[in-house]
Amino acid sequence: MSTATKPRHIGRNISRIRELRGMKQEILGEAIGTSQKNISVIESSETVDPEKLKEIAKALGVTVEAIENFSEESVFNFFNSFYDNSSNTGAQGNTHNNHCTFNPLDKVVELYERLVQAEKDKVEYLEKLMKGK
């Protein structure tokens, strides 16, 4: 049984980081001056040209090392440690207040009411147009 680790799939790492950043292939392609199709080819490749990798890293806002060493486990560890540390207050001097100063549900209701009013205004305008004919 071999204990050798398999090489990291750089293209897959690029794809996952891009997805985590909420970026589409088209947008990444535009950022580095290539097409969506080329991004798809890059993401299916196990290795990537070092210069192209630098451009991609810059466009994704990460380092080349972050792409090369990316793992799903490290992402979960990062978010778990962030969550765990966010509840530490007092003795460590962490006094950040991360609580909303408004009720998010109120904002949803406000947005819904504005959308309903906009639709009513449209209907009223269209009825006036119809009466004018």
From TrEMBL:
All residue ranges annotated as the HTH cro/C1-type domain in the record: 14-67
Signal peptide start and end residues: none
Gene3D superfamilies associated with the record: lambda repressor-like DNA-binding domains
UniProt source species: Flavobacterium circumlabens
Gene Ontology terms, MF aspect: DNA binding
Protein name per the record: Helix-turn-helix protein
SMART domains: HTH_XRE (SM00530)
